[in-house]
């Protein structure tokens, strides 16, 4: 069981996320980021399935058990994960993704960049977080299209223009609006029931 190794990885990750959140203008989000990882439900499996910090222990747990109890606990308590943002649409009576508020979307960006740095180490490049999102197209298709559209825009900015310009931009971001009538990617989604005035990120 890799208790010390897992603790070190989580602590390094939280420190990086805090650093990024300060740069993005949301320091309080960085301070409380991923605190649930220290709960027994998440920490013990994290230590049990630890693999020298090369990938998430959740992936190893899924391979062994067919699911990750630690991840299910985590995603239900941390709003910076897009998987948190699902609810029953009163119009369709189906569970559907809802857009992430911008504060949590910023934290999600910081989380993704920090995770890339932890797992890539010295080989990290500013394009890594974007590459990871691109490699998980099936997951991206499950997000609310506005969430996916905005997150991809920010990750592309990081890949093409670097951290300094991207974080400077995020500090200025307040209200973000991505509407299906103006966004081709959103308009192409036929599996989401858009409601006027309800599908903006604010």
What is the tally of beta strands? 2
Question: Proportion of β residues?
Answer: under 5%
Strand order of the largest sheet: 1-2
What's the number of helices?
A: 11
Draw up the topology in text.
Layout (H helix, E strand, L loop, with lengths): L2 H22 L2 H5 L8 H9 L8 H9 L3 H7 L10 E3 L6 E3 L4 H19 L7 H8 L1 H4 L4 H17 L1 H10 L11 H4 L15
Antiparallel strand pairs: 1-2
Helix pairs in contact: 1-3, 1-6, 3-5, 6-9, 7-9, 9-10
Summarize the model shown.
With about 200 residues, the chain is mostly helical. The chain is built from eleven helices and two strands, in the order H-H-H-H-H-E-E-H-H-H-H-H-H.
Provide a descriptive summary of the structure in words.
- This protein starts with a helix and ends in a 15-residue tail after the last helix.
- The chain is 56% helix and 3% strand.
- The protein has a domain at 85-187.
- The protein has a two-stranded antiparallel ribbon with strand order 1-2.
- Helix 1 (3-24) packs across helix 6 (102-120) and helix 3 (40-48) crosses helix 5 (69-75).
- The protein has 202 residues and is mainly alpha-helical.
